[in-house]
From TrEMBL:
Gene3D superfamilies reported in the protein's UniProt record: 4'-phosphopantetheinyl transferase domain (3.90.470.20)
Keyword Transferase: yes
Name of this chain's protein: 4'-phosphopantetheinyl transferase superfamily protein
PANTHER family cross-referenced by the UniProt entry: L-AMINOADIPATE-SEMIALDEHYDE DEHYDROGENASE-PHOSPHOPANTETHEINYL TRANSFERASE (PTHR12215:SF10), PHOSPHOPANTETHEINE TRANSFERASE (PTHR12215)
UniProt source species: Synechococcus elongatus PCC 11801
Family statement: Belongs to the P-Pant transferase superfamily. Gsp/Sfp/HetI/AcpT family.
Keyword Mitochondrion set for record: no
Amino acid sequence: MQRPNPSDAVPVPSIPSCDRGPIPTPVTWQPGPSQPELPERMVHLWRCCLTRSLSAADQAIVAADCDRAQAYGTQRRQQFLRGRWWLRQLLSLYLPEKPADFCFQLSPTGKPELPHTDLCFNLSHSGSTLLIAIARQPVGVDVEQPRSRSWLALARRYFPTAEQEAMQQSADCDRWGLASWVCKEAWIKAQGRTLANSLRHLACSWTATGQPCLQGLGSENSSIRLLQVDPQGQQWAAIASPDELDYQMWSASIILRNH
């Protein structure tokens, strides 16, 4: 495990217990364009489906990523390779290279990067849903679905004490815990940090409109959006960047139409 950065050991401010609680913004996924324009202060969030099987041609496209996937179990390996197939397809909408030509490298924390381009990206999956964020600045995304576990028990292990206390006074601990987790993980991924070294030093509270406010680790000026991925509210997601950016959210159906 990576040693904690001394700058991570920052006291987290107290969290007010009277906040309204999380209210995710419902997303309507419009079909994305075949040639997306990506301004400097824009994030494109794409929704993809992981149930698509990889053909022999698809397998050839992700062949360069197979070595990393060998350490995974069968199901996780298939999810990883399908995610990389979608990532390569989407990046080819922005760059002149073909999907098979991209050569990824890993940051010190294991985050995939594409050298020699200003594009930044991040991906997350839950069940059959894959979200991929693409921007020209660091960006992070996380998607989760409600679990049978107690989010308060998880908070006792990973969240600051002040946030645990605020959660216990809220109307719905599990709702708070789920929303807080996705917001924190999205921001941590945008920063290229590791979860283990960061969660204890980040606290999440909620504005009067139910949107997240992070405190700790220099996150106070970050831009965080809490999203309801599907109409039934079965999946929540968060997208994060260091600065205030605009967002466009699209379905990746354009890729399937081309295959």
